[in-house]
Amino acid sequence: MESMMVIPTWQLSFLFGVFTWIVGSSMFNVTQKIRYFVQPWVSRRVISGTPTVLQIQKYEHGLLDAFFSGLSCVVSVPFYTGFLPLLFWSGHGKLARQMTLLMAFCDYSGNCIKDVVSAPRPKSPPVRILTATKDEKENALEYGLPSSHTLNTICLSGYLLHYIFSCYENIDAFYEVAAITFVCLFVGLIGLGKIYLGMHSLIDILGGLILGLMILAFWLHVHEYIDNFVILGKNVTSFWIALSFLLLFAYPTPQHPTPSFEFHTAFTGVALGIVTGVQQTYYQFHHENVPRVFTPDLRITAFVGRILIGIPTILLVKFCSKALAKWILPITASALGIPVRSSSYVTALTGSSAVKKSNEVKQTGGYLQKMFFRWQESYDVDTGIRVLQYAGLAWSVVDLVPSLFSQINL
Which SMART domains match (predicted)? Predict the structure, then answer.
C-alpha cells in the first residue's frame, strides 16, 4: 500500500516544474511567439509540397484507395485502443503498459506541436482528400504537422521490435534484418498513404518521422525507470492523478479549435487508469510469471474466452463511468460554486451560442490552462467527464476484468 505521508522530493519537484511551465508559458505567451516564427515557414512548405501530393494522387485507383484507407485504420487511435487490452490479457503485461504509456506520450507530444504550430493541411481543391471513416473525418479537423499516424507507427513498432529482441536474444540475424526491414517498409507505406489520401504533405510526414525517432530514442532510455516506478514506486497513484490534472492545463491553445485536445484528454484518462490499476494489482495479475497465450498455461481457447468476456465488460464500464461522471461532476461543480457548461455530454448544460458553435468542431474553450489566468463565464465539464470515462475503461482492463478471469479460471 502506498504511503500517503511521505512524498518523494523528486515528485514534488517534477510537479512544481510542470506547474511553473504552465504559469510561465501563459504569462509570456510562449505558444503565440513560437507560432509567429514557425507557422509561416511550415505553411510555405505545405503550399510548395502541393505538386508532390498531386503527383502521387495521379495514380488514383479504387484498390489504392481501399488499401491506404485500411492501412490508415490499422494504425489509428481506435485500433490501438482495442488492441492494447488484448496485450494485457495475453500475459504480456510489461509490453502492454509500456505501449499504452508511450502512446499517451506520443499523443500528447504530437497534438501539442500540432496546436502550437497550427499549420494547415494540403488545400482541397486541388488536393483530393479521402476520409473513409468517422475517425479519419475527425482527424481531418486537426492541424497537419506532425503526422500522428507516422509518429505513432514509428514509436510503437520500434518499441515492439525492441521488446521482441530483448525477450528473444538468440534470434537469427536474418530475422532481425527482416523484421527491421518490414517495419521500415510499413512506416514508409503509412507516410505514403497519408499523402495519397490528401491528409498530409511531405513536411508533415517528415516532421512525424523525426519526432517519432526522437521520442523512441528517449523512451528506450527511460522506459525501465518508468516501469519500475509504476509497479514498485511510492505514492504512484497520487502522483499520477496530480500529473494528469496538470497535463490538462499544460496544453496550448490552437489558432482555431480542433479535436486534438479531446484525444489528449482521452489518453490522459487511459494512462491514469492503467497506472492506478496496475500499481494496485501488479502482484496478482501483471507480474512477469503470469500465463502467456500460446503456452500450456493459457491456450488459445482460454484467450478467446477472455476476449469474449473482457470486451463487453470494459465497454459496459466505459458506459457506466461516463454516466456517473455526467451526474457527479455537474453536481460537484454546483456545490463548489464553479459555473460549468457542456459541449455535448450534459444536455441540461448546453444551449448557449458559444456551446452550439463548439459542437460543430467538438471543442471550443476547453483549454483548461485558461482557468488559472483569466476569468471565464463557465468551464467545459466535458473535459472531466472524458478523463473519468477513459480512466474507468482502462482501470477495468487491468483490474476488474482480470479479477473476473481469476474467478472463472480463465
Answer: acidPPc
The answer, yes or no, to whether residue 39 has pLDDT greater than 70, is yes
Average pLDDT over residues 342-358: 60
Which amino acid belongs to residue 11? Q
Q: Is 200 a catalytic residue?
A: yes
CA-based Rg of the chain, rounded to a whole angstrom? Answer: 22
Q: Looking at residues 138-157, what average pLDDT do you find?
A: 89
Identify the active-site residue in 149, 223, 264, 286.
Answer: 149
Q: Which three cell numbers stand for residue 351?
A: 444551449
Query: Across the chain, which distance is largest between two alpha carbons, in Å?
Result: 65
- Cα 77 → chain centroid: 7
Q: Are 271 and 388 in contact (CB under 8 A)?
A: no
Residue 223 designated active-site:
no
Inter-residue contact 18 to 246 (CB < 8 Å): yes
Phi, psi of 365 (to 5 degrees): 60, 20
Compare 140 and 121 and report the one with higher pLDDT.
Answer: 121
- In order of 268, 271, 369, the CA distances from 390 in angstroms are 8, 9, 21
- Read off the amino acid at residue 170: N
Which candidate in 61, 92, 162, 200 is catalytic?
A: 200
Calculate the average pLDDT of the chain.
Answer: 85
Name the DSSP letter for residue 283: I
Q: What are phi and psi of 298, to 5 degrees?
A: -145, 90
Q: Quick one: CA dihedral 182, 187, 190, 192, positive or negative? A: negative
Q: Could you identify the residue written with the cell 532510455? A: 221
- 340-341 and 379-380 as β-strands: parallel, antiparallel, unpaired? parallel
43's grid cell = 505553411
Distance CA 238, CA 222 (A): 21
* Most confidently modeled range among 28-37, 123-132, 348-357, 375-384: 28-37
107/394 Cα distance (integer angstroms): 16
- Distant-in-sequence, close-in-space partners of 243: CB < 8 Å, separation ≥ 6: 14, 15, 18
Q: Which residue has the cell 494512462?
A: 271
pTM for the model stands at: 0.87
8 Å CB contact between 297 and 273: no
Range list of H helices, 233-299:
236-249, 260-281
- In tens, the pLDDT along 49-74 reads 999 999 998 888 889 888 888 888 87
